[in-house]
Amino acid sequence: MAILCFGGEASNIRGQSMRIRIAQLAIVLTMALVGAASTLADDASETFPNRTVQLVIPFAAGGSSDSVMRVLANNIGKEWARPVIIDNRPGATGAIAGEFVLRQPADGYTLLNAAPSSHTALRALRRDLPYDPMTDLRPATLVAIAPMMLVVNAKKIPSRTVSELIDYLHQNPNKVSYASTGIGSVAHLSVELFKILTKTEMIHVPYRGNAPALNDLLAGNVDLTIDVSSSVAPYLNSETIRPIAVTTAKRSPFFPEIPAVSETVPGFEAFSWNGIVVRAGTPKDIVEKIRAGFARAVREPSAVKLLSGMYMEAVGSTPEEFQTLIENDRQRWERVVGAIKLDDMPR
What we know:
The chain is α/β, with parallel strands linked by helices.
């Protein structure tokens, strides 16, 4: 039986058929593009790295992070047979370096050295931060942990244990001063955490870095501080500085005879750490290559010697383990910042 169509109906049928074919073609092209993109991503992961890798450090050259990263970059560069160049971009407590990395492709060729002051504490302190370190950056590996230590000027503070120090602070509210390496630094927030958990009061005296803070502690201009072990260790045998406790959850293998604050103050934990993060969206296979490279580099004799000399514990964690540490650190410092006055804190 013949089907008769008038001109308008035939035109509609042809138009519908054309739209169907165009839609089908669009689906085929989309699938082809997705497949091609997947293939390119796989190829990129397979060949990574095939050119120079940039390691951005949010601190000035010559510091502890810079020293560690230069040794690791040299070790990884030899393994990868590709240069790993150091790019120091200090300023804005790490935000300048973070913004720079986030302007680069998420391909693993731009790495960011992360530390509490430039990552977790920064997020807690900066309300105007133009990016979120927790979501815009992806953990690759925790390189090392640096134990911190609570020390006092032995000529001004009679206490020898954490319990004795707490009693002394209760008896002398706001009469004891503490030095920090700057407002919002991990050293500052660590003492504030101690104050919160022990219900004590002290006067904060911020400095621009470790050296001036320790100089004034030695001179007796301030009474105590919490600082990284590498800074205070050279003075532990002096008659001026007395170690009270380490601030890691457990005793440090470098100072097994010195108790941890947590043995007296449950829940107290504060330490410095050093790790590598990349821009979110970096392929998982590439992140794994970065993790594996740093895990091996941190075990090389040159790195072991440097880290031990700086009282830093080598780690080389998985991204997931590093993410857990970052999240715990973030929560810790956000609780502290939320509990103290922010009048003199950076915005």
